[in-house]
Amino acid sequence: MKFFCIRKTILASFCLFLFACTDESSIVYSSFEEWLSSNSGKSETVCNPKEKSVIFTSDQLKIEGLAKSMTGDLDEQNGSVDWSTSELIWLTGASVSVDSDDESLKETSDKHLCHSLVNYQNPKKLPWKIKTQGTDKRIFTFSQGVTKVQFPQDYGIPIISNSKLSIGNQVLNLEEPNLKGKVKFEVELNYINQQENCKPLKALYQQPVFVTKRTGGPIGAYNEKDTGKTESMDSSSTIFCDTGFAQCAISYEEGFNPYRDNFGRVFTGHWTISTDSLEVLATNITPMLDLQENTAIHAISLHVHPYAHSLELIDKTVGISLFKGTVDYQNGNLLRISNMDIYSSEEGIPVYKDHEYQLISIYQNPNGEEGITAMATMFLYLAE
What we know:
Layout lengths: L1 E3 L6 H8 L13 H7 L13 E6 L3 E4 L9 E6 L8 E12 L13 E8 L17 E5 L5 E3 L4 E6 L4 E7 L8 E14 L8 E9 L2 E4 L29 H4 L16 E3 L2 E2 L5 E7 L1 H4 L5 E10 L3 E8 L4 E10 L7 E4 L2 E9 L5 E8 L8 E2 L1 E8 L1
Parallel strand pairs: 1-2, 9-12
Antiparallel strand pairs: 2-11, 3-11, 4-10, 5-8, 5-9, 5-11, 6-7, 6-10, 12-24, 13-14, 15-23, 16-22, 17-21, 17-24, 18-19, 18-22, 19-20
């Protein structure tokens, strides 16, 4: 089954797509587990249901010379796994491929992948409250080096089959200024129909945590007591579109805003790195993680830009590294990410509501170049 692009936008609209808000709500249950206990209808006696898939195919996207992060041609489309039914299904994984009919782009792979995003279009239209905090309710994110996410066996993200999804794709071209051509994206979602399963899977929810860089205000970390000292920020500390939507998209239950603290500091999650050979940033992500109970991480995906070296999740309370994703490059070319470490496990990584957590990013800049953009996000899939 394939769905094709129905709407194309400019960059400003894409930022709105990334961070859109809605006030309408159909939420009746405070959690998926509460909904499931009230809607656990009889399932067929099939304990090995066949995994199915649906593919969303983008419009042809143009490449006309260089296109840095968030500047390339893009599209977005709306769809669902199955418009014709309204029943519980489980998303078990997803992937993206980039193809072209142009001879010069025959082996494009993910070289020209800036982002592929799968979001709930209207998360408040689900009958249960999603645990994800602080975002537009992202489900999957793909970028250069990460083109597939697969959950461990018997785990999945629950969703209603005809729930509206938003799929966004954007091209990237960092190396070939004279390149012209077209590419298309195919995003495949894998799922299991609960009506064909003898018992529910174990529910996951996605929670992003990300590194921020201070761009203004007093010296110090987020909400660190004001020392009264200030410093001029170097010109590399550029604020991109994320902060413009902070009050709308970055919305946490306790009013936490990762872009502004109580002492006048300003932060961004999309910056240009310093001209130092290494840039190491550390962010306390405990408020982003927003754990209400002890649980476990069963899958991890990353999003970083070229020149990244690693992204590491630390349990500060006990002083241990929980997961470190390192970035591999094709033949040492720092513009071409070939692979990033990701994680998927039935056993999981335990996390605790009374612990403090930190995310550390390392970017490399061996030649002291200017204008290298950066992001550093971990997408954590936690057990509900």
